[in-house]
Write a structure and sequence with these properties.
The chain is α/β, with parallel strands linked by helices and about 150 residues long. The protein has helices spanning about 10-15, 20-30, 40-55, 65-75, 85-95, 100-115, 130-140, 145-150; strands at about 1-5, 35, 80, 120-125, 140-145. The chain has one domain: 3-Layer(aba) Sandwich (Rossmann fold). β4, α7 (about 130-140) and β5 form a beta-alpha-beta unit.
Length: about 150
């Protein structure tokens, strides 16, 4: 079974109507089984609220409620791994995870834990963050860049 791991950048590209929205939409809808760290919920919620605060003078008053509802629909399609002692241990054992930002290390460590689950043959890693893409590729994950090249 192949899992598709998502960091926050693809769903945010969809919700915030970014230039990469169509690409993100294709990744999301082509994924059979979506997974992520619980960080996905936290990051996307915080970014959505911050975006609204920075742009509320040009956005409709109901914008945040509408986008939050859409975001929740996307988040409901994801299987989550809670940040726990196993994730902490993975980060401490893999020194390579020290060469990135802390939240990126948590995402990659979480994807590594998903890869260990029974029946999982592959984990595809979807992110628009180039540093996280490079890090996940160093752990032999196929990323959206590598998937397109195949």
């Amino acid at each position: 079974m192949t899992l598709s791991y998502f960091d926050s950048s693809p769903p945010l590209a969809i919700i915030l109507d970014e230039d990469r929205k169509q690409e993100a939409y294709e990744y999301w809808h082509n994924a059979e089984i979506r997974c992520s760290s619980i960080l996905l919920k936290i990051e996307t919620t915080v970014v959505l609220r911050r975006f609204f605060e920075h742009n509320k003078d040009r956005l409709d008053g109901n914008w945040l409620n509408e986008k939050t509802k859409i975001l929740q629909e996307y988040l409901n399609e994801v299987n989550y791994y809670v940040i726990n002692d196993e994730i902490e241990r993975e980060i401490f054992l893999r020194k390579e995870l020290s060469y990135c930002r802390a939240l990126d290390a948590i995402h990659v460590a979480t994807a590594l834990k998903f890869k260990e689950l029974d029946g999982v043959t592959d984990v595809l890693f979807y992110t628009f963050d180039n540093r996280m893409k490079t890090l996940s590729e160093s752990f032999k994950f196929k990323t959206n860049k590598k998937i397109k090249e195949s």
